[in-house]
Amino acid sequence: MKNRKIYCLNPISEIGLKKFRGGYSITDKIEDAHGVLVRSADMLAMDFPKSLRAIARAGAGVNNIPLEKCSEMGIVVFNTPGANANGVKELVIAGLLLASRNISGGIEWVRKNSGGENIAKDAEKAKKAFAGREILGKKLGVIGLGAIGVMVANTAISLGMEVYGYDPYISVGSAWNLKRDVHHSENVDELYEKCDYITVHVPATPSTRGMIDAEALAKMKKGVKILNFARDTLVSENDLAAALESGHVSVYVTDFPTAKSVKMKNAVVLPHLGASTAESEDNCAVMAACELQEYLDNGNIKHSVNYPDCDAGVCRTESRIACLHGNLPGMISKFTAIMSEEDINIANLTNKSRDKYAYTVIDIDTRITDEALERIREIVGMHRVRIVK
Ligand SMILES: NC(=O)C1=CN([C@@H]2O[C@H](COP(=O)(O)OP(=O)(O)OC[C@H]3O[C@@H](n4cnc5c(N)ncnc54)[C@H](O)[C@@H]3O)[C@@H](O)[C@H]2O)C=CC1
Ligand SMILES: O=C(O)C(=O)COP(=O)(O)O
Which segments does the entry list as coiled coil (predicted)? Predict the structure, then answer.
């Protein structure tokens, strides 16, 4: 009976943990873990044990995981696309309203004046300080039309906003899901120039870092309201603070408290609550647990962010060997040659590649010897060889 150990770096919903079948246990020691479940814990400087085969991020953003290091160590990293998108979308809609009506200022006023005997009368006098605008008919720019951006754009259309969407890498699935009324901005400048509200829903990568900087802000309308429920690093905080001070940006609503954002004028800062709903936590945990299990049990990869997806089904032969390796010329012939020398018949072979990395699953009719396995492991460019069955 296999004994696979899963380590949780963050609290993970019980519903997800219950998905693990017999042969799995939750360990409190990462040193002997085969799989890790994580949410936002920072793994960038962590050492990984040799036993670790896969990391599943119960959520979307993987900027807390060292992807290149994982790839080189033959650790497959998964995320859970779309599983928390509705949770984030709902908070973004709340963010639109927080940016339009001075709800937080009003709540603060009531709290401060809660001891007053004449609170009802005083409120009627005080309320003019908190008057706002309606979102109906206003222009919203959505940058990044993935799982979250599409939902935000479609909901904003339903609320009567005029929506501009920008995503040069939009997937076919997202394009199908987007309401026809969403204007397609072919360049982001059009969106900056036209929109009253701008919301960003792109991943944090080196290329999106600081995308909302002084140059971008200068192209936006005076009084624009910016929403950032994606990541703090997308915004150049010094540039944004200056734009808020001058009034060029009237409100900044963000899900990311930083030493700078919490001190910005007219910033509404939430403590990273986008995916913190029971529904999103359950969805992410279930998807992440299933991905880990399918990889550890059958070697199949679905929703990986560093290796190619690969479905070789269930192994019906004597044994299955899975190899994570560089996407290099001659790799397959190198390990099939070793198998042929060992007189091993290959019943099925599936090979997939993704950028620098590739994955090969080989179903064989006899058990492989330790010597042959060692020779395959020693091939230059091989990152991990695993006997799945
Ligand atoms: N506040 C929170 O709790 C949460 C925050 N997030 C953040 O939101 C991000 C987006 O999440 P999802 O929509 O689920 O991801 P997704 O992968 O479905 O969508 C991202 C979209 O951004 C697009 N994109 C990438 N670079 C772009 C660029 N330079 N300009 C325009 N579009 C670009 C991609 O083509 C893709 O369509 C995550 O990477 C994460 O950082 C995600 C979930 C929860
Ligand atoms: O899924 C994401 O990218 C998120 O930001 C959600 O993070 P969390 O799981 O709530 O720590």
Answer: none
Supply the ipTM of this predicted assembly: 0.99
First to last CA, the chain: 12
Residue 225 CB-density burial (10 A; 0-12 exposed, 13-18 middle, 19+ buried): buried
* Same domain (yes/no): 145, 221: yes
387 in the same domain as 317: yes
**Cβ(146) – ligand 2 distance below 6 Å:** no
Mutate to test the pocket of ligand 2, among 40, 270, 303 (most ligand atoms within 8 A of CB): 40
Distance of CA 65 to the CA centre of its chain: 11
Q: Cβ(216) to ligand 1 under 6 A?
A: no
Q: How far is the CA of 91 from the centre of ligand 2 (A)?
A: 13
Give the torsion sign (CA, 61, 160, 128, 194).
positive
> What is the helix, strand, coil percentage profile of the chain, to 5?
35, 20, 40
Cβ 155 vs Cβ 134: under 8 Å: no
pLDDT in the model for residue 1: 58
Instruction: For residue 353, give both structure tokens.
Output: 């590649």
pLDDT at 56: 98
What pLDDT, on the 0 to 100 scale, is given for residue 116? 86
How many structural domains does the chain have? 3
Q: In whole angstroms, what is the distance from residue 318 CA to residue 299 CA?
A: 15
In which residue ranges of the chain is pLDDT below 70? 1
Ligand 1, pocket-test mutation among 65, 86, 167, 277, most atoms within 8 A of CB: 167
Tokens of 185: 């901005």
16 CB within 6 A, ligand 2: no
Q: 189-210 burial, b if ≥16 CB within 10 A, otherwise e?
A: ebbbebbbbbbbbbbbeeebeb
Whether residues 233 and 346 fall in one domain: no
60 C-beta closer than 6 A to ligand 2: yes
Q: Which ligand is nearest to the CA of 79?
A: 2
The first and second tokens of residue 387, run together, are 């006997």
Residue 108 sits in the same domain as residue 217: yes
Ligand of minimum distance to the alpha carbon of 92:
1
Residue having the nearest C-alpha atom to atom 5 of ligand 2: 61
Distance CA 213, CA 134 (A): 27
Q: Which domain holds residue 248?
A: 85-269
Cβ–Cβ under 8 Å, residues 197 and 96: yes
Distance of CA 91 to the CA centre of its chain: 16
Same domain membership, residue 21 and residue 129: no
The number of residues in the chain equals: 389
